[in-house]
Each structure stands twice: as structure tokens, then as C-alpha cells.
Amino acid sequence: MALKIFVDFDGTITRQDVGNAFFREFGGERCSGYVAEYKAEKISAKELFRQEVAAIGVLDEGRAEDFLFSQPIDDSFKSFVEFCRARAIAFHVVSDGLDYYIRKILSHNGIDGVSFFANKLEAVRENGIARLDISFPFDHAECTRCACCKRNIMLTHAGEEDIIVYIGEGYSDRCPAQYADVVFAKDELQKFCQEKNISYFLYSSFDDVVERMEDILSRKRPKKRREAEMKRREAFSCE
Ligand SMILES: [Mg+2]
User: Which CATH number among 3.30.70.20, 3.20.20.70, 2.60.120.650, 3.40.50.1000 corresponds to the domain 3-238?
Assistant: First the structure.
């Protein structure tokens, strides 16, 4: 038995949804319209990203870095990383956002070597101009609600004996939270857990998470959540 922790990025590690803010800043207001279409289930998550990337056109990378480096993160995330490393607990960041800004923001905040999974945005330089190219290495074959399937990443990176811990706050955390044994939730994810009767720990910062994790680890055997275990079995028999 080992603990495996999966952590959302936007709004969980960062204070705000950097992805949305990034597309609004560089793609303009029309990106809000695309988000509304996505929320109304008129377009898929991948289509949403393609539209948003097209809206940006050419990215001024200097301006992009200034913007990304000004995004505040939860101050206590760094101590959470140290906590996991000191106790040899595996953790992965799972995001339906972009590797482009996750890498830059973590590194800017002095947090290196963190494993993360996200959609891939590349700036391909041609004659000094950066053309954007988006791809989805972790998409799901059928489900279109997310472009990066956090659930499948979680199931692939946790064994049957592992206790899965999930930390999140928003829309794309609703699916993976249902498959996790221990859920840390706030904001939209908290409401979802209440509606679906998923037991969760409310947190506001990673300090709260570490405190609760210390408590969980001091018990002899952290327990699995029966509904999550059933959903995991179901997922494996369907895939
Ligand atoms: Mg989020």
C-alpha cells in the first residue's frame, strides 16, 4: 500500500485559473464566448483549445512570460512538495491546462522536478515569430469533456493496492475526484462532492492539506473509499 497524490494546477496550485486568464489576455474577449460554448456542451474541450489558440495567433513570448510570472501561486505549495519528497510519497500534477505555463510558473517559483501531465502547447519559432501548436497527448478516446483525461492518468499511475488522494477545486476535477479514496476539495469541487455524497476534506491552502495528511499517515491504515474502488473496477472492465 502506498499513497499516490494527484493535484490539479489552475486555481489549486495557482490562485486563479491561469489558462482562462492567459487566453483572455492574449486571445481577447472572444475566448470567453468559446468558453460559454464549451460550458453549453456545444463544443468539446479540444475544440475549445483549438479556437482559443487560433484566437491568439502570434504569441509575444516576452509578454507571455511577464504575464505568467505575475500569477500568484499558493505560498504553501512548496512545503507540500517538500513534505511529499521527505516522505517519499509519489505525486503528480494533472491539468486540463497547458504544459507551457505550468512549466514556466513552477520553475519561476523555484519548484523543479515535479511530474505533471497536461495538454501540450508549443511555440514553434519561425523568423523570430512564435506560431502556436497545440496537441493532446492524454486525451480520452470517447469522452470530450476534458482534453486531458485526469482519470486515466490516475488509474495508470496507481496500483490496485494504492490509496489515491486527489486535490482540486474546479470542473475538470469532478471526474477524477469520483475515483479517489481521499479528496481535498474547495469551491466548485466542494459543491460537487456535496451533491454526489463524496466525502472530502475542505482546504484553503496546501498547509491544510499537509496537516491533514500528517494525521492520515499517523493512522495505521488509511482506508479506501468503497465507491471509488468500485468505480475504478468498473473503469478497468470498460476500458
Ligand atoms: Mg483547476
Answer: 3.40.50.1000
